[in-house]
Amino acid sequence: MESTSALNWRSELVSKLAHVMPEFEAIAHVPMIEEIRTLKAARRAVIVAHSYQVPLITAGIADFTGDSLAMARFAARTTADTIVVCGVRFMAETAKLLSPSRTVLLPASDAGCSLAESITAADVRALRRRHPGVPVVAYVNTSAAVKAEADICCTSANAVEVVESLASPRVILLPDRYLASFVAERVACEVIAWPGTCEVHQRFSAEDIRGYQGTEVRVLAHPECPPEVQAASDFVGSTSAMIDYLRRVPPGRVLLLTECSMADNVRLARPDLQFERPCNLCRHMKSVTLQKVRDALDSGQLAIDIEPQIAERARRPLQGMIGL
Prior knowledge:
- The chain is of the alpha/beta class.
- It folds into three domains: 4-112 and 285-299, NadA-like (Rossmann fold); 116-198, NadA-like (Rossmann fold, 3-Layer(aba) Sandwich), CATH 3.40.50.10800; 201-276, Rossmann fold, CATH 3.40.50.
- It has helices at residues 4-17, 23-42, 55-58, 68-77, 89-98, 121-130, 144-147, 159-165, 177-184, 206-209, 227-231, 239-248, 260-269, 290-299, 308-322, and strands at residues 45-50, 64-66, 82-86, 103-105, 136-139, 152-154, 170-174, 190-193, 218-221, 235-236, 252-257, 273-276.
- The strands form three sheets. The chain has a four-stranded parallel sheet, sandwiched between helices. Strands 6-5-7-8 form a four-stranded parallel sheet, sandwiched between helices. Strands 10-9-11-12 form a four-stranded parallel sheet, with helices on one face.
- Helix 9 (177-184) links the parallel strand 7 and strand 8.
- Helix 1 crosses helix 2 and helix 4 runs parallel beside helix 5 (89-98).
- The longest helix is centred in the N-terminal third of the chain and has 20 residues, at 23-42.
């Protein structure tokens, strides 16, 4: 006979997920979620998820959900034997860099990132030759090899603070050109950008939100969106900044110009908010599924491995960011 706590846990999860999916669908996934919870305990594992993951992952199995900076900080302090990263490859590499003694599993080995893939370590070295003596800030959305060529890392949540901390008249910020322009408007120094973009956020246009302007709908945009989108929005900020903003607003209609699942995850805590479309799906984030998480925990395969020389150099800029 099942314990009362087990029955309560199931009921609470289904009730929570009912805000974003039919109840029968939530119930159908409970057995897989319970299997993952059992495997997680057996492996002394924790599951960290990005806010762009679906609620079945964030509410169902994750021990921690947040943006890239929060995920990095969690990875740096965990004592678990295994970290399962429900996100993309650069996030799993970041977890491994900050917790080198832990096993880090990436359930979807093909979960890449258009932004991370827009620049290589050789590109960074060429930038340094072109701009000698100028410090390099690498967005966390980069490979370990690119981080190894940087002076310090940043996320969209702390990019302004990181750039200001360098106290330099010129700074290279890569690879997202729209984040670079966002930062350039808020700091006193010159910001040299790389022409990379996020395939999710670059697809938004000012036309997408024209019909919402002048209405009661609050429009929130990510700094990876084009400048004209940012200019037409009511609020521009990182994933965590948008979530903080939405915690404080009264009930009403909201348009989030970011990955679609973030609205679903916010709705779990704020069912009184009505989220409008458009939004854009990240094909890489959506390659992570409950089945793949279950298989990764069961087999222990798909572990992240970083060449030691690269890891040693890439760890320093990450730790510099964490230490601010």
